[in-house]
Design a protein that fits this description.
The chain is an all-beta fold and 444 residues long. The chain has one helix at 2-12, and strands spanning 22-27, 29-34, 38-40, 45-50, 60-65, 68-69, 76-79, 88-98, 101-106, 111-116, 120-123, 129-130, 135-141, 147-154, 157-163, 170-173, 182-192, 195-200, 204-206, 208-209, 216-220, 230-236, 249-254, 257-258, 267-271, 275-283, 288-291, 295-297, 310-311, 319-320, 375-377, 392-394. The radius of gyration is 38 Å and the shape is flat.
Length: 444
């Protein structure tokens, strides 16, 4: 009796992990046969589990919702007149009895079911879409009335609108880009008995993937298959082209120089040496090419490409700012071309030595009332003599005003005028008919 009770308790406990046994290398496949991943409460949906077994063996099926094992063991799982509580991720697994015990498949990928208790659903693909594709979304309304207006929103902002009798609830987004990714919803309006009813759906995520993602280079220096003083370069990339996908080629580079020829494999074994390594992935038939970010290995020394700055202070000679060694005084340029200078002008402090700079614009004959810090004039004793080197210092100064402009962003996306009212979706089951709807309405 104790044994029977123990078996009964084990049988009634929800279990996600089935008893241990031999596990195959292939995975079960769970898919929807009828219905959509987003359905209204009261609707039904059918799922099917298939086993990719070339030997056509006889299998039984185990179904799971989240971490709970369901009592159904058939090939199909039916959610009849689903409720909101039936929402969740569903899995399946194959099992069959053999001479060495039970044999199991790998657990399938999940099928995400969302049961909505509201009046509007935005139907969109449950799988990611690719850059350049066309996305179709549909604003579904419970009981399918004849719509007068449909508005599509992305992240709460109106992007498309349709008006008129028997309005088409379908929207098409062409030539997708990563910017089209986001949360989409819709608002639908229709007339019933001289009243205008308006409902809005909950958010539906839309994911947009690039056909070829940016590669990431990995440098592996240890491993059983890596020879001594060698390292393995691995170029990781996500390739999302639909089957049959065109072939892609991999290229590896060190300090901008290509290492060997193109490869169909995403890895290469090279000699360990310091440098900056990168990889490139190319799909010739699709015209796609992506580079990885360079990755340094070992002690990489880069040449100094920054030009030393010349700092000029009035009354002193130019000095160089050397990022490596100490500061040193540079001799004047062409010292033999300098001519004797006149005694110091009272308006100017005496200078220890002339400052050699670039030519300045012509000076006026007026005596400046004040001397700016950005200009120093040195006059010669003989006005008829022209110096071979200009004696005016101009320090370049860049200044600019940044004008701030303000713009108003107009809102008002998708606001319904008159007597349209919003219905909150996802909070309860369908009330049954239009007469019992608790909606804001306006007589026409």
């Amino acid at each position: 009796m104790d044994t029977v009770i123990s078996l009964l308790v084990l049988f009634t406990l929800p279990q996600f992990v089935v008893p241990q046994g031999y596990v195959t290398s292939f995975r079960a496949v769970a898919e929807m046969v009828t219905g959509n991943s987003r359905i209204f409460s009261g609707e039904s949906i059918r799922l099917r589990c298939s086993i990719p077994d070339d030997h056509r063996s006889t299998w039984s099926y185990l179904w799971f919702k989240e971490s709970e094992q369901l009592p159904q063991r058939g090939e199909h799982l039916v959610l009849w007149k689903a409720h909101i509580k039936d929402s969740g991720k569903f899995y399946c697994k194959g099992v069959r009895d053999t001479a060495v015990g039970n044999t199991y498949t790998l657990l399938s990928l999940p099928v995400d079911i969302n049961v909505d208790g509201g009046w509007a659903i935005l139907k969109a693909p449950s799988h990611p879409v690719l850059v350049g594709d066309t996305l179709k979304v549909t604003c579904l309304v419970r009981a399918t009335p004849e719509l007068r207006q449909v508005i599509l929103y992305k992240d709460g902002i109106e992007v498309m609108r349709r008006d008129g009798d028997k309005t088409d609830p379908n929207f098409f987004l062409t030539n997708l880009t990563p910017k089209d990714e986001g949360m989409y919803s819709c608002r639908a309006s229709w007339n019933v008995q001289r009243r205008t009813l308006s409902v809005i759906s909950s958010n539906t995520p839309v994911q947009v993937l690039e056909v070829l993602s940016q590669p990431v280079l990995e440098i592996v220096t240890t491993g059983e298959l890596i020879p001594e003083n060698k390292m393995k370069l691995v170029c990781h990339v996500q390739y999302n082209a639909p089957a049959p996908a065109p072939p892609r080629s991999y290229y590896f580079y060190k300090n901008g120089n290509r290492l060997g020829t193109a490869k169909s494999d995403n890895s290469d074994v090279v000699k360990q040496s310091p440098g900056r390594y990168s990889c490139k992935v190319k799909v010739p038939l699709l015209g796609l090419l992506r580079w990885s970010e360079p990755k340094s290995f070992g002690q990489v020394t880069e040449p100094q490409t920054r030009t030393p700055q010349i700092l000029v202070a009035r009354g002193t000679s130019p000095r160089s700012t050397d990022p490596i060694g100490p500061q040193t005084t540079k001799p004047p340029i062409h010292p033999t071309t300098l001519r004797p200078l006149a005694p110091s002008i009272p308006s100017l402090p005496p200078a220890a030595e002339p400052t050699i700079t670039w030519p300045s614009p012509p000076q006026t004959t007026e005596t400046p009332a004040s001397i700016q810090s950005t200009e120093v004039s040195i006059q010669l004793s003989d006005p008829t003599l022209k110096p071979s080197i200009p004696a005016t210092v101009h320090e370049s100064e860049e200044s600019g005003d940044m004008s701030g402009g303000s713009g108003d962003m107009s809102g008002g996306s998708g606001d319904m005028s008159g007597g349209s009212g919003d219905m909150s979706g996802g909070s309860g089951d369908w009330p049954g008919d239009f007469d019992n709807m608790s909606l804001n309405s306006t007589s026409i």
